[in-house]
C-alpha cells in the first residue's frame, strides 16, 4: 500500500498477487476475531479503501529472529479522501494501530496463518468520525453488505449509512437482489 497507488479500487493494488506469493496453500487468517482465508484480509482493505488512501504502513516493534513469535505492531496511516458511508472527505490523516502475528509452514518463506487486529471503530471515533458511521462499522451485516457492494464496483459516494443499515435489517432481500445468496 506504500507504492504511491491511491483510490478505492482494490484491483489497482497488487494485493492478491503479493499475498499469494507469501502464503501457503492451506493459508488461514483471523481479522479482528473473524476467521477465514485471504478473502477476509482483502475485505478489511476493501472497507478501508472505500473512504481512505493508505499512504504509509509502519512497524513500531517486531519480534526478533531468535524470538520466532512472528509478532509485529505498527500503524496503518490513512488519509480520508473519499466519502465513507456518507461521511464527507475531511482530507485529514490518522493512524490505525495494528497487531499482527504470522506463522509459517514447512515451506520456506510461506505463511500458513496470520492474525491481524485493527481497532477500526475506535480509530474512527478518535478522528471525529460521525457516530452513525462508527455504529455502521461495528454492525457486521452492514459491513458484509458494504463489501458486497464494493466487490460489484458500487462507488463509495453512493454507499450511505441509511442504505447499509437498512440492508443489514433486510439482509436476505438485499442479498437476493444482488445475487449473493
Explained architecture:
The chain is 36% helix and 29% strand. The protein is of the alpha+beta class and 181 residues long. It is globular and about 50 Å long. The two termini are 31 Å apart. The mean pLDDT is 83.
Briefly, what is this?
This protein is of the alpha+beta class and 181 residues long. The protein has 7 helices and 6 strands, in the order αββαββββααααα.
Highlighted features:
181 residues, alpha+beta, 7 helices, 6 strands, globular
Secondary structure layout:
Elements lengths: L14 H8 E9 L2 E3 L1 H14 E11 L8 E10 L12 E12 L6 E7 L2 H7 L4 H7 L2 H12 L9 H9 L1 H8 L3
Parallel strand pairs: 1-6
Antiparallel strand pairs: 1-2, 3-4, 4-5, 5-6
Helix pairs in contact: 2-5, 3-4, 5-6, 5-7, 6-7
Rg (C-alpha, Å): 17 Å
What fraction strand? 25-35%
Q: What is the string of helix and strand elements?
A: HEEHEEEEHHHHH
Residues in helix, %: 25-40%
- Overall outline: globular
Poorly predicted sequence stretches spanning 5 or more consecutive residues: none
Main beta sheet strand tally, sense and closure: 6 strands, mixed
Question: Based on DSSP secondary structure assignment, what is the total number of beta strands?
Answer: 6
Q: Count the helices. How many?
A: 7
Mean pLDDT: 83
Q: How are the strands of the largest sheet arranged?
A: 2-1-6-5-4-3
Structural class: alpha+beta
Could you tell me how far the N terminus lies from the C terminus, measured between alpha carbons in angstroms? 31 Å
Amino acid at each position: 500500500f506504500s507504492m504511491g497507488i491511491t483510490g478505492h479500487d482494490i484491483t489497482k493494488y497488487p494485493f492478491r498477487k503479493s499475498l499469494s506469493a507469501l502464503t501457503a496453500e492451506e493459508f488461514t487468517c483471523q481479522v479482528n476475531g473473524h476467521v477465514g482465508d485471504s478473502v477476509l484480509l482483502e475485505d478489511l482493505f476493501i472497507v478501508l479503501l472505500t473512504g481512505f488512501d493508505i499512504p504509509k504502513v509502519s512497524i513500531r516493534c517486531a519480534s526478533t529472529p531468535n524470538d520466532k513469535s512472528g509478532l509485529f505492531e505498527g500503524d496503518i496511516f490513512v488519509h480520508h479522501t473519499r466519502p465513507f458511508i456518507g461521511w464527507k472527505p475531511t482530507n485529514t490523516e490518522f493512524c490505525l494501530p495494528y497487531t499482527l502475528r504470522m506463522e509459517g509452514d514447512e515451506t520456506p518463506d510461506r505463511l500458513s496463518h496470520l492474525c491481524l487486529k485493527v481497532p477500526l471503530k475506535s480509530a474512527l471515533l478518535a478522528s471525529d468520525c460521525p457516530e452513525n458511521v462508527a455504529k455502521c462499522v461495528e454492525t457486521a451485516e452492514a459491513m458484509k453488505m458494504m463489501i458486497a457492494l464494493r466487490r460489484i464496483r458500487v462507488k463509495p459516494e453512493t454507499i450511505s449509512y441509511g442504505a447499509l443499515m437498512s440492508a443489514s435489517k433486510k439482509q436476505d432481500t438485499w442479498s437476493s437482489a444482488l445475487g449473493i445468496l
